[in-house]
Design a protein that fits this description.
13 helices, 24% helix, binds calcium ion, CERK_C, Lipid_Phosphate_FormReg, DAGKc domain-containing protein
Length: 559
């Protein structure tokens, strides 16, 4: 193995911390401090936190949030209380600087930690502050100015409080300036982004809310980007232009699956810190069309049947907050409706992995980093030759309890591994999951597997495909030729029945249509065409970090 050159040493001094002397070093990669003592103690205690090796602490420069000269606390003479006083070079130990940095705690969560190092004189203290600030100024990927939208009614209505108490102090410590808009109605953020916002002023957009609020932000940003570039969103075969602004999500919604699946937790402080350090995670987006009309974009769940019905029912129970999904979930489960229709899809090449492999998308994922050759599908799908096995559309007809498309895992607190645990954030594909009509007991077994380690696809009534595009036509909208085909299969009487059911949706027979749940919004059409657009947007995230990053020190030989 080639030996990496050691990063250049920038500054090294003996400074004190909690009355002990430390050798403190700064190079272009790490800030480190190591106790200067003859008997070196092994670091004990919390295994998370700054990287520790035998009494040494290492903080990567890219995880330093800020550095500032510390105001020492001294007793005030007249009030007898402790007060903050400005630095004065009276006593050597009063010169100190504080470094705030990212500390990893359990379950992929990050915290803002601090270390205060005391110097013998002010010149040295300022030298340290300046040297660290210089290193931070080299991190040009960090945002300086953000546009923040808060949905005050998302989740448990705590968006505003979460932002003010947990997020704003972190942004101000990191010297990030913000323009904050508290939304006054649904689609306020979308419309503002689409037509009014002066996007050039910002390095990113932050949304405080749930998946529905995030959906508003991407609709605003993607539409604006296409409009500015003259791309017609109504054409399903258009190549869309990727958005340049990154999006941050501060979770304050009911499911928060986009945040959870890209960060590994739904914790506002963790998300704020990913924004501060300037992370960037590309993400696929599905476009949904009906004939030649653009309907919506989706990044998480696009679900017909079960999840569509859960959403439709839950909208009437919004006042319940996040619990509405569980109540509507049980109700929908008990109603056990199935829907008939035709799915056609364009499968992805297997070199992007399969939904049933165990290769999960993690930070720095190789599958997402190296785009596969078949990601850019032919514009004219009809021209795809039947002899080309990669480009052949497949058709499946049947009765389904659920048809789900997941552009990413859809991991969330309700289902920590998600609807499709091996789906990738940025590979240009979606996983299409078909749950055929089965007994209530079997469907329950399938649902339960979303909450444990068992494979939810390992059932004879579940099929899963990795796709670039798909189409769905509910049975009642099938063309005459499709119906004739079926009648020839021996179900002639049903055609008559389907027409009756259209007028009597309450009859609960299998021919009534469901709705699509598109990232928590109800779609007005059942017949849709879906296409995955590879890496159309970018998030302030890095994908879920491997557990080892949290539990073991980095390879310290790079230091
Ligand atoms: C028996 C327990 C079964 C638990 C099954 C849990 C599966 C959960 C998969 C969740 C995938 C979530 C995908 C994300 C969707 C979100 O974009 C979207 C919008 O989020 P927002 O409100 O934050 O804006 N959220 C949703 O559409 C919510 C979907 C939640 C579905 C919960 C279903 C609960 C089912 C319970 C069935 C219980 C049967 C019990 C029988 C005795
Ligand atoms: N000020 C507002 N008043 C009412 N609805 C809003 C407002 N701002 C956003 N919304 C809408 O609220 C819905 C739910 O928002 P979201 O933040 O996803 O919360 P939840 O996760 O609880 O569904 C979204 O459809 C969004 O468009
Ligand atoms: Ca994907």
């Amino acid at each position: 193995m080639e030996k990496q050159p050691k990063p250049q040493l920038l500054l090294s001094s003996q400074l004190s911390l909690l009355n002990r002397v430390y050798e403190v070093t700064l190079n272009g990669v790490f800030l480190s401090w190591k106790e200067v003592e003859t008997r070196q103690k092994r670091a004990v205690g919390n295994i998370y936190g700054p990287l520790k090796a035998a009494g040494s602490h290492y903080v990567p420069v890219c995880e330093i949030i800020s550095v500032q000269e510390t105001e020492e606390e001294c007793p005030s003479t007249d009030l007898g209380k402790w007060q903050k006083v400005p630095q004065s070079p009276v006593e050597s130990n009063q010169h100190a600087f504080t470094v705030s940095y990212v500390e990893r705690i359990q379950k992929h969560r990050w915290r803002c930690s601090e270390v205060t190092l005391h110097c013998t004189d002010r010149t040295l203290c300022l030298q340290w502050v300046q040297a660290i600030r210089e290193q931070l100024s080299l991190l040009t990927i960090r945002p300086k100015r953000l546009l923040v939208y808060i949905n005050p009614y998302g989740g448990k209505h705590r968006g505003k409080r979460i932002y003010e108490q947990k997020v704003a102090p972190i942004f101000s410590r990191a010297c990030i300036s913000t323009d904050v808009i508290v939304t006054e109605r649904a689609n306020h953020a979308r419309d503002h982004l689409k037509t009014e916002a002066e996007l050039k002023k910002y390095d990113g957009v932050v949304c405080v809310g749930g998946d529905g609020m995030f959906s508003e932000i991407i609709h605003g940003l993607i539409s604006r980007t296409q409009c500015d570039s003259g791309v017609d969103q109504n054409r399903s075969d258009e190549t869309l232009i990727p958005c340049s602004l990154r999006i941050g999500i501060i979770p304050a919604g009911s499911t928060d699956c986009i945040c959870y699946a890209t960060v590994g937790s739904n914790d506002p402080v963790t998300s704020a810190l990913h924004i501060v350090v300037g992370d960037s995670q590309p993400m696929d987006v599905c476009s949904i069309h009906h004939n030649n009309t653009f309907l919506r974009y989706s990044v998480s769940l696009l679900g017909y049947g079960f999840y569509g019905d859960v959403l439709t029912d839950s909208e009437r129970k919004r006042w319940m907050g996040p619990a509405r999904y569980d109540i509507s979930g049980v109700k929908t489960f008990l109603s056990h409706r199935y829907y008939e229709g035709t799915i056609s899809f364009l499968p992805a090449d297997e070199n992007v992995g399969t939904p049933r492999d165990k290769l999960q998308c993690r930070s720095g994922c190789n599958i997402c980093r190296l785009p596969s050759l078949d990601k850019q599908v032919s514009k004219d799908e009809e021209s795809i030759s039947d002899t080309d096995t990669k480009g052949v559309w497949q058709v499946i007809r049947g009765k389904f309890l659920a048809i789900n498309a997941a552009c990413m895992s859809c991991a969330c607190p309700r289902s920590p591994k998600g609807l499709s645990p091996s789906a990738h954030l940025a590979d240009g594909t979606a996983d299409l999951i078909l749950v055929r009509k089965c007994s209530r007991f079997d469907f329950l077994r399938h649902l339960l597997r979303h909450t444990n380690k068992d494979d939810q696809f390992d059932h004879p009534f579940v099929e899963v495909y990795r796709v670039h595009q798909f189409r769905f036509t509910p049975r009642y909208e099938e063309t005459d030729s499709e119906l004739e085909l079926r009648e020839a299969e021996g179900s002639g009487r049903k055609r008559f029945f389907s027409q009756i059911c259209r007028e009597h949706p309450a009859c609960n027979c299998s021919l009534v249509h469901s709705s699509w749940n598109c990232d928590g919004e109800i779609l007005p059409h059942a017949a849709i065409q879906v296409r995955v657009h590879c890496q159309l947007i970018k998030l302030f995230a890095r994908g879920i970090e491997e557990q080892s990053v949290f539990e073991e020190p980095y390879a310290l030989n790079a230091i």
